[in-house]
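Bench log, entry 3. Co-assembly request; chain sequences pasted below exactly as received.
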Amino acid sequence: MNEYRIEFMDEALRLAKANVNSGKGGPFGAVVVKDGRIIARGVNLVTSNNDPTAHAELIAIRNACAQLEWFELTDCEIYSSCEPCPMCLGAIYWARPAALYFAATRLEAAEAGFDDAMIYGEICTHVEGRKIPTMHVRHKLAASPFIEWKTNGNKIPY
Amino acid sequence: MNEYRIEFMDEALRLAKANVNSGKGGPFGAVVVKDGRIIARGVNLVTSNNDPTAHAELIAIRNACAQLEWFELTDCEIYSSCEPCPMCLGAIYWARPAALYFAATRLEAAEAGFDDAMIYGEICTHVEGRKIPTMHVRHKLAASPFIEWKTNGNKIPY
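Structure output for the full assembly:
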């Protein structure tokens, strides 16, 4: 894990602020660093792309993986202007970078009107009683995709 | 909230199983339903697209939003072959559908070799001591994107 370098956070915060001025989306920016240089950037494009998943970290991860032509970010660091929401933190775990640095917190995001803190609460709650009604349904074929996966000799694990 | 209809879960599970056979990615499928019909589908494309965020639910949400030309899925239901991972559950909260149905559980996903249950544990843990080293850093401009957001008269809240 490489040490924190302020110039990369400067850039994440610059992207976040500029994104508000551009009108493209929310006040968030992120960069992916590998071997001491920025290999990908991301800003929030939710409203301009009509894509609720277009958060800065998700876009930075997708851009970085496209660069590396691989589905993991081993030996990379992610710098985010704000603590990642649960969606983005989940994406970071799937991407498996070496480190994550963030500046503002989920509480500051909440104060600015974003649902991050609420979603953390929901995700860490039992399925029953969530704000979005959620139901685990029984289906006789529920396990069939996993059986197919376990017995398939051609799969690429991830 | 419309009632659960098994034919939509049939389709999510069919997609999940077919995706393994096609070699495109993991054993997961999802559909988005609006007004009693499927408006978008998604399968896991992590390895074929080199995109760790290309989970079935995320892709189904992005496809549905593209269809609706809007960044929310109000009055839609999401059917997923498996309990969404934290990334996908976060995406579902941002998309704000009316309901979520899933068949297999996170534990069945874990048994098949997927990290969902581990990531739930990590997200619900304090920032310190996570498996991916995570650091909240102080930066004098940390709040500047939010200040810009609050004072910008042209923003589209989401």
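The beta strands of chain B are 29-34, 37-43, 76-82, 99-104, 134-136. The CA atoms of residues 7 and 13 of chain B lie 10 Å apart.
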